[in-house]
Design brief:
The complex is a heterodimer of chains A (115) and B (114).
Chain A lengths: L3 E2 L3 E4 L5 E7 L10 E6 L6 E8 L2 E4 L7 E6 L4 E6 L8 E8 L4 E3 L3 E5 L1
Parallel strand pairs in A: 2-11
Antiparallel strand pairs in A: 1-3, 3-8, 4-5, 4-9, 5-6, 7-8, 9-10, 9-11
Chain B lengths: L2 E5 L2 E3 L5 E8 L8 E6 L5 E7 L6 E3 L7 E6 L4 E6 L8 E7 L4 E2 L3 E5 L2
Parallel strand pairs in B: 2-11
Antiparallel strand pairs in B: 1-3, 3-8, 4-5, 4-9, 5-6, 7-8, 9-10, 9-11
The chains are: A mainly beta (115), B mainly beta (114).
């Protein structure tokens, strides 16, 4: 079982909100990790969006709009990237990441389609 | 402005070697840890290696351990990745990234093929 699991794809309408999940493997407690989120558009390197551990331990990337936010669902053992007021430019691949056992570990990525 | 520029990629035969470089500017290079991350064509991101600011701590992904060596030269503001015993599955765009992957270069393509 992968350390981090993301749904392969997600579709949402312009102006709506999208909730991207990053589920941690059983036995790895989401509460103890900072979860990092990255956006990647075709032909470009990933861009750092934000990191979230708790409401008192979070960081927004430089220039990243506030409509991108992070949270956690402890009951699902998952990190969440919420994108509100979806725009066509938000269509991209999104990756979550944690630092685990002396390694950075990525989720498989979610392709977000805005249509 | 933080700038990271990778170089050294290219076509190499299986079993061959390649050395990647990453030139850093716009920040105090010697104060930051650095990483290499790769992305195979059409695939997701895979972290490769980490080096602390003073080179005292180094980590590798299991997939490259024993074959790749990360290093840095703080006097030259440069990060390196020596890649030996290359395999077809090492084919990817290789990115250097600062600290907790807050800043990324544009990447350099490594193709391992006969």
């Amino acid at each position: 079982q992968a350390v981090l699991t993301q749904p392969a794809s997600l579709s949402a309408s312009p102006g709506a909100s999208a909730s991207l999940t990053c589920t941690l493997r059983s036995g790895i407690n989401v509460g103890t990790y900072r979860i990092y989120w990255y956006q990647q558009k075709p032909g470009s390197p990933p861009q750092y969006l934000l990191r979230y551990k708790s409401d008192s331990d979070k960081q927004q990337g430089s220039g990243v709009p506030s409509r991108f936010s992070g949270s956690k669902d402890a009951s699902a053992n998952a990190g969440i990237l919420l994108i509100s007021g979806l725009q066509s430019e938000d269509e991209a691949d999104y990756y979550c990441m944690i630092w685990h056992s002396s390694a950075y570990v990525f989720g498989g990525g979610t392709k977000l389609t805005v249509l | 402005e933080v700038q990271l520029v990778e170089s050294g990629g290219g076509l190499v035969q299986p079993g061959g070697s390649l050395r990647l470089s990453c030139a850093a500017s716009g920040f105090t290079f010697s104060s930051y840890s650095m990483n290499w991350v790769r992305q195979a064509p059409g695939k997701g991101l895979e972290w490769v290696s980490y080096i602390s600011s003073s080179s005292s701590t180094i980590y590798y992904a299991d997939s490259v351990k024993g074959r790749f060596t990360i290093s840095r030269d703080n006097a030259k503001n440069s990060l390196y990745l020596q890649m030996n015993s290359l395999r077809a599955e090492d084919t990817a765009v290789y990115y250097c990234a600062r600290e907790a992957l807050f800043h990324w270069g544009q990447g350099t393509l490594v193709t391992v093929s006969s």
